[in-house]
């Protein structure tokens, strides 16, 4: 299993903490012949550490390129499909698709369309639960706009959740990005909004599970 570079530090620190807790348990329990409790505590610590390792797993995905399609930028489940007015940069009515990532999902993020990064901004903010309606405008987040080769603008936001406390984005204004290339990482449960031209054909419904870089969620006109 390949581990994403964003997890190296957390995995190492968690491993040290788990070892120190185990050493403390061993010191306290071995003196009182609490072998059963020691084994139980040891198993819990190992399982917890493996959960942290698995959270930062980096799956191998086939790179798909189709200029007409918009692909899911993350693993998760569709929680919003609606028309909204985008007021941060594009100032127009757009089709919004929101995908919620649970704590068990892969948390790598992929670019939903290929093109040139036209706009990028990081917004500090709150840490409301990711499915809260105001999380799109009040939570810590990044906003990226990619202009496709035929001139269409696609906006997507990485949004921190209640547990997520760090958003990583590799996007830089002016750089060319390949469809379904890795664009960032959100540590622990969170959400991504994708805003598309309003005449875009929707290919998913609320409740649908999606796989990042593999599931088409819309077709550009």
UniProtKB/TrEMBL annotation:
Compartments it resides in: Cell membrane
Protein name: Phosphatidylserine decarboxylase proenzyme
HAMAP family in the record: PS_decarb_PSD_A (MF_00664)
GO cellular component labels: plasma membrane
EC number: 4.1.1.65
Cofactor(s) this protein requires: pyruvate
InterPro entries to which the protein is assigned, alphabetical: PS_Dcarbxylase, PSD-A
Membrane topology category: Peripheral membrane protein
Keywords (A to Z) from UniProt: Cell membrane, Decarboxylase, Lipid biosynthesis, Lipid metabolism, Lyase, Membrane, Phospholipid biosynthesis, Phospholipid metabolism, Pyruvate, Transmembrane, Transmembrane helix, Zymogen
């Amino acid at each position: 299993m390949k581990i994403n570079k964003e997890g190296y530090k957390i995995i190492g620190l968690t491993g040290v903490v788990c070892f120190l807790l185990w050493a403390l348990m061993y010191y306290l329990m071995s003196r009182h012949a609490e072998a059963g409790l020691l084994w139980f505590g040891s198993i819990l610590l190992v399982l917890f550490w493996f959960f942290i390792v698995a959270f930062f797993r980096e799956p191998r995905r086939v790179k798909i390129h189709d200029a007409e399609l918009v692909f899911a930028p993350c693993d998760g489940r569709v929680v919003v499909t609606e028309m909204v007015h985008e007021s941060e940069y594009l100032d127009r009515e757009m089709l919004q698709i929101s995908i919620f990532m649970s704590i068990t999902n892969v948390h790598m993020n992929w670019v939903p369309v290929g093109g040139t990064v036209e706009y990028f901004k990081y917004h500090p903010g709150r840490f409301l639960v990711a499915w809260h309606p105001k999380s799109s405008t009040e939570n810590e987040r990044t906003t990226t706009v990619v202009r496709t080769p035929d001139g269409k603008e696609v906006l997507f936001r990485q949004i921190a959740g209640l547990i997520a406390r760090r958003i990583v984005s590799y996007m830089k204004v002016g750089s060319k990005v390949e469809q379904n290339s890795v664009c960032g990482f959100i540590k622990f449960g969170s959400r991504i909004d994708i805003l598309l031209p309003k005449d875009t054909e929707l290919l998913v419904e609320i409740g649908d599970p999606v796989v990042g870089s593999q599931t088409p969620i819309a077709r550009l006109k």
